[in-house]
Amino acid sequence: xxxxxxxxxxxxxxxxxxxxxxxxxxxxxxxxxxxxxxxxxxxxxxxxxxxxxxxxxxxxxxxxxxxxxxxxxxxxxxxxxxxxxxxxxxxxxxxxxxxxxxxxxxxxxxxxxxxxxxxxxxxxxxxxxxxxxxxxxxxxxxxxxxxxxxxxxxxxxxxxxxxxxxxxxxxxxxxxxxxxxxxxxxxxxxxxxxxxxxxxxxxxxxxxxxxxxxxxxxxxxxxxxxxxxxxxxxxxxxxxxxxxxxxxxxxxxxxxxxxxxx
Length: 262
Fold this sequence. Notes:
By secondary structure, the protein is of the alpha+beta class. It has helices at 17-26, 46-51, 121-139, 174-186, 192-196, 213-216, 229-232; strands at residues 2-9, 31-35, 56-60, 68-72, 76-80, 92-97, 102-107, 145-150, 190-191, 205-206, 219-220, 223-227, 235-240, 256-261.
């Protein structure tokens, strides 16, 4: 079975329902994972999504903050929703497709502005969240699984517009990069996007603060698609839809795609 998966931090699924529908119509991924839905599950606008064939959903939500959802054209069953770091936030959901593949959808805490847990509680929460992810994957090695989401870390030097300038900026600090690598290594995850696009600057997020984000191009690759080794070799076609960042009333993130033949 071949299927295409996309991950996208939508920054409010209700506010941006129209561009979610546009992506569904124009790109038609079989599985669409959204983060930062900012909606209780019962308020997610399902009617339009279902009309386009996305009749299966697993989700966790809360009013105004966080929230993760997976919409699928393929039958899917919820299998997990973990509260890493005990934050009480809707930041993880997992669904299993009918081919036995488990899709984990994550929204890792952004971490605030200062990369110092002594003065910034949010940064500490981010590191704790990553530590819990690491420990969970080390204790129960994932198999036949895909991990996607806004991981809020750009790990490689070519995942940011200026490596040296961003070394002390949350999302690219050494401790965050090391923590994310520990998560990846604990589950033997393969970075599918970089397996397909091994070199060159690659971004999925551009700040709203830049009035001309496209020209300035000060981006970061915060959104990721990983897979376990048993299926990573069956992934291909990775791409980031940069143009979506310029759609009307956009999210500050662009969707990341990958196709799997399983």
